[in-house]
Specification:
This protein has 319 residues and is an alpha/beta fold. The protein folds into two domains: 224 residues, P-loop containing nucleotide triphosphate hydrolases (Rossmann fold); 76 residues, no CATH class. The protein is 36% helix and 18% strand. The strands form four sheets. The chain has a five-stranded parallel beta sheet with strand order 6-9-12-1-13. Strands 3-4-8-7 form a four-stranded mixed beta sheet, with no helix packed on it. Strands 2-5 form a two-stranded antiparallel sheet.
Amino acid sequence: MSALRAQTRDVFRERVSKAFSHLIVEPEMLDQLGPAIASGRAMFLYGPPGNGKSVMGEGIGRVLGGDIYVPYAIDVDGHIITMYDPINHDRLDADEHDTTSIIAAAPSDRRWVRIRRPVVMVGGELTLDQLDLTFNPLARFYEAPLQLRANGGVFLVDDFGRQRIRPDELLNRWIVPLESRVDFLTLHTGRKFETPFNVFIVFATNLQPESLADEAFLRRIPYKILAKDPTVDEYCKIFELNCRKRGLPFDKVMVEYLDRRYYQPRKLQMRACHPRDLVEQVVDICRYQKREVVITRELLDAACGSYFLEESDSQGAGA
């Protein structure tokens, strides 16, 4: 069994709750995420924009936790492929040895680097070329593709369906690896070789999954989890959390005012990102005016005036 699959066996409710404790996530959602993470298989996170799908994808990395070792580079028939990526890999210091021991510690293998379990995120900039080896003709070495660098961790495809490549091209590229857990890469010489596809793939999208993939692919992703709009009570909790982060007092009356003044008359849908964005705008306004930062109706009106669209049939601002 792979290291990642072995790690997911230890996923349980308390661990999932702790990993998402910095967010307001309803228990029913956590109970859906838990089994999906424990399966070690790919999942769709879908729903309206601004409800925290990207942050949830990052939270999966917190659930898995731990650290792993990756090689700086690998050799395939004399061809060097760089693996360690300082952008996507969070390097950890080497283990400290007991200096009081009279027995010298074994030297570490300098071919490997210890990192936090990787969480590689890509968005609309993703191209098909980034999923294959990149050859540098001057330096005469290859750079590993993104999914290989994410091995042992999470690969989050954010805003899936809005990439520079068509969804079906990306899905066809991964339809075999998702089933067999191995991938095949090709050197510029034409030599093909097998690599592990030991990656937890998360597709985050605000589009309907069935509009992005056919039945053959969807069956390979057994978990499709909807990130719903928050209820008024959840919206209050998110608002309070963001006030607390800013060191501001929270008054539930302000949320009731927003609901009565903006959401209900304009038929706006509450999004999980709205409290954060509105609080930040209030802070910006107070700084601009050189006044004490507080949450008032006047300041919320000013923030909403530049945040929400004026059309009465607007569905609210996205993330």
